[in-house]
Design brief:
single chain, alpha/beta, Oxidized Rhodanese, domain 1, Rossmann fold, elongated, disordered C terminus
Length: 366
C-alpha cells in the first residue's frame, strides 16, 4: 500500500502519539526541530553537502546514486534504532489492554526524497509509516501562524524577586493555562538570567516551543493564558514581534511585594550561585548601574555579604522594570491592576491573583 502523507494539522490532531522521526542532517536538527521529534539522519552534514552540490552542479540522477551509496550501509542500523525507540515507547503505555502498535511518522525539510527513502525502508520492514506533507517547512508555517492568532492573555508583573515563576507554577497546578517564557528560553531574563540554566535554544527552536504551547491551549476553552510580563528579548532570543505586541495589549497584574521580602527571595535564589558568574553579570551592567554602585556590589559579593550586594542590584532592577513596564503601553492605566501582597508565598499569591482577575478589581488591600 502507498505510504500516507499527513498534513501538519492532521499530525497534531490525530498522530501526536506517534513516534516522530526527523531524518534531516544533524546540523539541521540541532538548529531547530519539531519538539518531541527524534533524530535519525539519512545523511551526515558533510554527506548532505556532497549530495546537494552534485544535484545543483551535475544532475538529479547522479545525486540520487551518491545518496543511495550513503544510505545502503545505514539501513539495518536505522531499522534497529526505530525498533529500539518503539520498544521504549511501548514501555510508556499505561493501559494494560492490547493495543495497536505505535505508528511511525517521518519527515525531512520539505517532504522530499529523504523522508520518502526512509519511509520506504521502514514500510518495507513492516512498520506502520506516515510522512508529513511539506515536512519541517510546513511545520514552520504552522508555527508562524500561531503568533498571528488572537490568544486571550493575562500578564503577571512585578519587580525582581516577586516570585513570578513560582506563582506561574502554582497557577498551572491549579489548572490554569500557563506559558513560562523563561523556561522555554532557558533564561531568567536579566544579566544574571543564564546562571544555573541550560544552554539557550536557537531563536527558531524557541519559537517552535512557544508555538506548540499556544496551539495546545487554543484547542481548549481555557481563558486566559497566563504569562510573565517580559521584555521582548530574553537572553539571546526574542519573543516574536507580533505576539509581543499582543502581550503588551493584555491585562497586566502587578504584584506589589515589599522590598525586604523580595530581597530575601532573591538571595535564596541566587545566593548559592557561582561567584565568578555573578561578578561577570555585574560587570555587564556596570555602565547603567554606575561605577561606584558596581564596585560596591562586587566588593560585598567578594566579602560574602550577598544580601547587601543584591540590595544594590534590586534597586537598580526596580528602576529599570518600572521604566520597561511603561514602554509601548500608551494605555497602561487601563491595563494595569495592582495587587498588594505581603510576601512571595506562591500558592497564596496565585489565589489572590485569580480573585483579582475574576473580580476585575484595581487593587486588593491586605
Amino acid at each position: 500500500m502507498p505510504i500516507t502523507s499527513l498534513s501538519i494539522s492532521q499530525y497534531f490532531t490525530s498522530y501526536r502519539h506517534a513516534l516522530l522521526i526527523d531524518v534531516r542532517s544533524p546540523g539541521e536538527y540541532n538548529h531547530a526541530h519539531i519538539p518531541g521529534a527524534l533524530s535519525l539522519p539519512l545523511f551526515t552534514d558533510e554527506e548532505r553537502k556532497v549530495v546537494g552540490t552534485t544535484y545543483k552542479q551535475e544532475s538529479r540522477e547522479k545525486a540520487i546514486k551518491i545518496g543511495l551509496k550513503y544510505f545502503g550501509p545505514k539501513m539495518v542500523r536505522m531499522i534497529e534504532q526505530v525498533e529500539k525507540w518503539l520498544k521504549e515507547k511501548e514501555g510508556t503505555r499505561t493501559d494494560a489492554a492490547p493495543q495497536q502498535p505505535f505508528p511511525v511518522v517521518v519527515h525531512c525539510w520539505r517532504g522530499g526524497m529523504r523522508s520518502a527513502g526512509i519511509a520506504w525502508l521502514l514500510d518495507l520492514y513492516g512498520f506502520n509509516v506516515f510522512t508529513i506533507k511539506g515536512g519541517y517547512k510546513s511545520f514552520r508555517h504552522f508555527c508562524l501562524h500561531q503568533f498571528e492568532l488572537d490568544h486571550p492573555m493575562a500578564l503577571v508583573g512585578g519587580y525582581t524577586g516577586s516570585g513570578k515563576t513560582a506563582l506561574l507554577q502554582a497557577l498551572r497546578q491549579s489548572g490554569q493555562a500557563v506559558i513560562d517564557l523563561e523556561q522555554l528560553a532557558s533564561h531568567k531574563g536579566s544579566a544574571f538570567g543564564n546562571i544555573n540554566m541550560p544552554a539557550q535554544p536557537s531563536q527558531e527552536m524557541f519559537e517552535n516551543k512557544l508555538a506548540i504551547e499556544l496551539y495546545q491551549y487554543s484547542k481548549h476553552a481555557v481563558q486566559p493564558i497566563w504569562l510573565e510580563d517580559e521584555s521582548q528579548r530574553i537572553g539571546d532570543v526574542n519573543i516574536p514581534f507580533g505576539f509581543y505586541q499582543k502581550m503588551r495589549q493584555s491585562p497586566l497584574f502587578f504584584l506589589d511585594i515589599p522590598f525586604e521580602s523580595r530581597l530575601s527571595f532573591i538571595v535564596q535564589d541566587y545566593g548559592k550561585g557561582d561567584i565568578e558568574k555573578l561578578v561577570n553579570a555585574i560587570i555587564r551592567i556596570q555602565k547603567r548601574l554606575g561605577g561606584l554602585e558596581a564596585k560596591n556590589a562586587i566588593q560585598f559579593l567578594m566579602d560574602g555579604d550577598i544580601k547587601s550586594c543584591f540590595s544594590i542590584l534590586l534597586r537598580y532592577y526596580d528602576k529599570w522594570y518600572l521604566k520597561g513596564m511603561e514602554v509601548h503601553r500608551e494605555n497602561l492605566r487601563d491595563l494595569l491592576q495592582k495587587i498588594s501582597m505581603t510576601d512571595t508565598d506562591a500558592d497564596r499569591n496565585a489565589k489572590r491573583l485569580l480573585a483579582a482577575y475574576q473580580e476585575g478589581v484595581k487593587e486588593m488591600p491586605e
